[in-house]
Structure formats: C-alpha cells, structure tokens
Predict the structure.
Amino acid sequence: MNQQAEAKAAFEAKLQEFVGLEIGPPEVADDDVNEAMIRHWCQAMGDTNPIYTEPEVGKSSTHGGIVAPPAMMQAWTMPGIVVAYDLDSLDDKQRELHKFFGDNGYPSVVATDCEQGYDRYVRPGDRLTARTTIESISEEKATALGIGYFVVTRTLYSDQKGEPVGWMTFRVLKFKPNQPAQPAADGEGSGPMSGKPTRMRPPLAHDNAWWWEGVDNDQLLIQKCDDCGTLRHPPRPMCSECQSIQWGSIESTGRGTVHSYTVMHHPPIPGYDYPLAVALIDLEEGTRIVSNVEGISPHDVRIGMKVECSIETTEGDFKLPIFHPVAGE
Ligand SMILES: [Zn+2]
C-alpha cells in the first residue's frame, strides 16, 4: 500500500469505530406531549386534521381523545438551533465524528433523507425520550456535491414507561465540496483522500436491487407484469397499464437503437470522463434504457444507430451495462 492508501485506510478504520455508538445520554423531552404544542405545530405545517386539535372530535374517534401528529415525533425531544453551534465542544459522539470529518478534509454537510416509523400515536401526557445511535458510515462516494461519506443515525423514541413509540433514521453526507482544480493551499485538500474519485454507485433499494443483481450476473433484465405482460423500465413496483403489483422479468438481448442522446461536457461530476455520450436506447423488446455509448467518439453517436449492450466491469468490482455500436452497421 502506498502512503496515501494507508492514510485513507487508517481514516476509514477510525470512522468505523464510531458505528454502533450512542451519541450521548438519552434526551428527555422538556415538556409532556401537550395540546398547545400540537396546535402550534399543526398551524405551522398547515395540518387541519381535527383529530389533532379538537377535543370533541378526538373523543369520538378510535383514539378516545386528541393525539399528536405522528410526524411531529422529533419535535418533542429536539433541542433548539443551539445544536448546530459549537462543534468544538466534544460532548457527544456525533459532533466528535463531524469534527473528525472536518479535520480530515470533509468540512461540509448536507442532510439527504429521513425516515420515520411509528409504534403508536402519542397523546397529551406522554413524555418522550430519544436515544440516538450512529448506525452506519458508507464507503467513500462521489456525488454531484463532492466526494464524501454518508452517515446514518437511528433514533429510538420511547414513552415514560420505556415502551417504544417510534424511530427515525437520518442520513447526512459529509463531503469535500467540488472545487476547480488548483494546487492545494493552506491545508485545503490535505485530507487522506485525493485519489481519483469513483463513479457514483446506484442507490439500491427494495424496488431496484434485483435489477442490479441481474447486472452483476451479466444479465440485462426487463421487468414484466405478471398479469398483462407489459414490460417496464426502470424498475418500479406497479404496472402502469393494469396496476398489478405482481411482476417477473425477462432477459433482454441487449440489442437496440439510439432513440436520442446528449453529449455532456459540463458540469463535470467526479468519476466520469468527459465528453460523455448519454443515450436513450430503444431495446428491441420495446422498453427504453438510459446508458452510455462507448467504443466510438461521443460526437459520432447518431439517432437511429444500432447498438448492443455489454455488461462491463468498471473500477474493480462495479458492473454496468454499456452500449457499443454494432460492428458493420
Ligand atoms: Zn400489467
């Protein structure tokens, strides 16, 4: 391993030491769940459901009284804006982690997504407690904002009896902002990472992971409705023709024609070589797919050109369907 790779490995090993840690002591809500705060939240959010604000409606409902909007869960234990200040006081592991990122060349942060789940409605008189754990830290990613790491925290909410009421995951990207190429100065860019960034990896989830597994097995798959037989791409849960959620897949021959294309020059995203031909390919089975056309100058790509897919390994272990002009066409 060269020195840079060693520094990166040490940095990433240290990052992983944060995974699984509770960020600090449990946060107990300053107030019981109460009608006034519920009303203010509903007014601020424009939520007019009377189950949250009108005692008579609450009483006659299955809840037997007013309940708090589930999405308000975080508000009960959330500290004020003060949480965003004073990264130097190392009184919790999340701040310590963010400072560690900052000290190693990843000063910027952006929240990317949040999910919540609920065990039960909370109601006036409940007192919530939140416990937050650093759940995962990704491998290094190249994003449109810059290269960095995704950090996920998981917060568990419980009531005054210690019974669970809900959970929340919160994902942020800690990153090194993209900058025009220039010599490193005053420590800028002096973190352990200055190797060539890799291509963005597809976000894998319930609805699309199977398709990428197909690519890993050298197959270009097309989703097919079990009920009406309609093919669809990109993968999604429901058939747009008959609304069936039953589906299977077929394997494409990989042959198609260029329906349309664009040649990208700007803005450059780390991990890609420019100019880059991005094409919409009509597969002969009848669906379309977005991919790159390679093996030809980007300027020679033409609408109607016959192309063929090959599954190619890029950057070590990452497979992608890439299209090439059909020889002799
Ligand atoms: Zn269908």
